[in-house]
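Figure-free illustration: sequence to structure, shown twice.
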Amino acid sequence: MNIELLVVPDCPHAGPAAELLRRALVSIGLDGTAFTTRVISDAREAEAAGFTGSPSFMIDGRDLFAEPGRTPFRGLAPPAADLPPRGILPTTGLSKHQHGRKP
């Protein structure tokens, strides 16, 4: 399972999003699982990654919070969007992948 946190340069949410992702992994028993933080620095990279906003939580190239019809992120300025509300962990997609993994 390839877990990535995608962010724009100087994203003010990068640190809190990484902590949120770490807590989500721990909450479903994947506390030893590594993830990478990847900085998306241009439109071509955003298009290739399916990046729709910063931060984006990706598992095996799929955005955990993808919205149907949303196009890849074009602007690379720091984001206006906030993180999920306090207490909401990005575990939905993680749990699906956890159950499908081989021991």
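We now fold a second protein in the same way, so the two outputs can be compared directly.
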Amino acid sequence: MSELDELETQHIVRIPIQANRQPGEPEIFVSQVNIDDFAFDRVGNLYGTTHIYNSVVKIAPDGKVSAIAGSLQTKNQR
């Protein structure tokens, strides 16, 4: 699986790698996110860092977003 982070449109695009090692059809994994760096785990969850909120979020394949780490400042702003 390959990923592409599109900063201007705030899309994270996932490109599956097919059995023949060729790229599959790109698909938008999530939109409207402000994530700086990210990685996927083996079951498809995305873990991303947010500079602006000073946090780490988890985005499940079904789109559910969970904050899993953050600064004291971030927690006080919620």
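Summary for the second example: The mean pLDDT is 81.
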